[in-house]
Design a protein that fits this description.
The protein is α+β, with helices and mostly antiparallel strands. It has 16 helices and 15 strands. The chain is elongated and about 125 Å long. It starts with a helix and ends in a 14-residue tail after the last helix.
Length: 526
Amino acid sequence: IVVGSAVALLLGSLSLFPFLGKEFMPTLQEDAIMFRVVGIPSTSLDESIRVANVMDASLRKKYPQVNAVLATIGRAEKGETADVNYMEVLLDLKPKDEWPVKQSYAALGREMQEFLEGEVATAVFGATQPIQMRVEELISGVRATLALKIYGEDLDKLEELSAQIKGVIGAVPGVADLAAEANKGKPQMVIQVDREAAARYGLNADDILAVVQAGIGGETVSTLIQGTRRFDIAVRLADEFRGSPSSIAAIPIRTSEGAIVPFSSVAKIELAEGYTFVRREALQRYAVLQMDVQGRDVDSFVKEADAAIKAKVKIPTGYWVEWGGAFENQQRAMARLGLIVPLTIGLIFILLYTAFNSVRHATLIIANVPFAIIGGIIGLFTTGQYLSVPSAIGFIAVFGVAMLNGIVLVTFLNDQRKHGLSIRDAVRQGAALRLRPVLMTASVAILGLVPMLLSTGVGAETQRPLATVVIGGLITSTLLTLLLLPLIYEWSESRAEARQRKREAAEEMQDNAAPPLLQTPTEDTP
């Protein structure tokens, strides 16, 4: 009855596992609000400053929780510079007990974001937190919790696929702050050589492009040395001769015969929209769709969104999509844990075998490990938490305590057997005498993690899954160690003893059935 109940409980908890959401790390509530503000690529510095001033005045007037607004323009990931169309806006907020409305930081951030989207129509806003934002940039290279990377060769095709996939993902429940990177729209001057006209004048493309490079871009002609410092001396045309397409079109070019022709006679000059930057990874260009996930776990969202993309978007040959950000980190972490945990349990089994010199006893202790996950899974499911890296670490800690309790109990039962007690007496007496040590071992860990389970301060989101798994797992593993392990020990030892008696009886019968040895005849033998 006990073994059957324990196995049924284990199978029941494992059936809950597919219903557990999965994520890399719980969202850390930093009690702070920061906005990512992205304008169109052609945004000037004056326009970015104007948007920052509008945000400052609007937020301080609308929300009394705000003390000050600090905007950092042109700041990007890893401390590099970015265009002036990107800024990070940090809000200095009053203590929470001074807020007129009692609400969470996340709710206030969403409310402010909706308000700013109505106030400023020329920028895209995303509410985040300072540490969270920087970690996302450093780990995945994107400014969002989740990112979909679309790889391919042609930039225009990537932009077209981004628009199609954005429409599909936007219909998936749980998506928030979905946006494509504002990449195209940077004003550019495009100069194309008219090769037929240049050939009529006896010019080649290099001669014409040398004028573009030297006259418009500048060319180094010498070096100025001041002590240990060196400065390049560059020469280019004055601003009035290169500041507009009309002035560039009038630049004189000397032909091979010595004639002077205007630049517009051998090249086409036009203004166009170009790309602010070109992202590359693994020798491929790619575009990025950035998004956050709210109200559900990242793993289930990615699976549903991926299925919708495959069903509704036809991706051409040579193009493919990959998920990055939190999902990529979660998959990588779980893959490593899936390798490390079995390897660790295998090494522990070897150590147990060398300690007890018995495969049976080592297997008996390792058998505690599956039953230790029962309370952890039930704890996560009942509290609505997701399977993440902190909870996985909690399972590893529970495995260690469960095996420690098993070692304590099996070692004591073996000592009782060595003192001449029968199996039943050794199990009864050993389970009773080891009750307090096993309960003390589990109680210390449980009581020590109760503050982490009940905490609500900064960082509590990452501590709570670990505490939930350890406390729930220790409760079930301790009960099963005290009830199930002695029964299995008695059952296995009784079977081993019965096999030993049969083996000894068979050897004794074999010895009795052997014929007597023949004696050598002597003179006294009749």
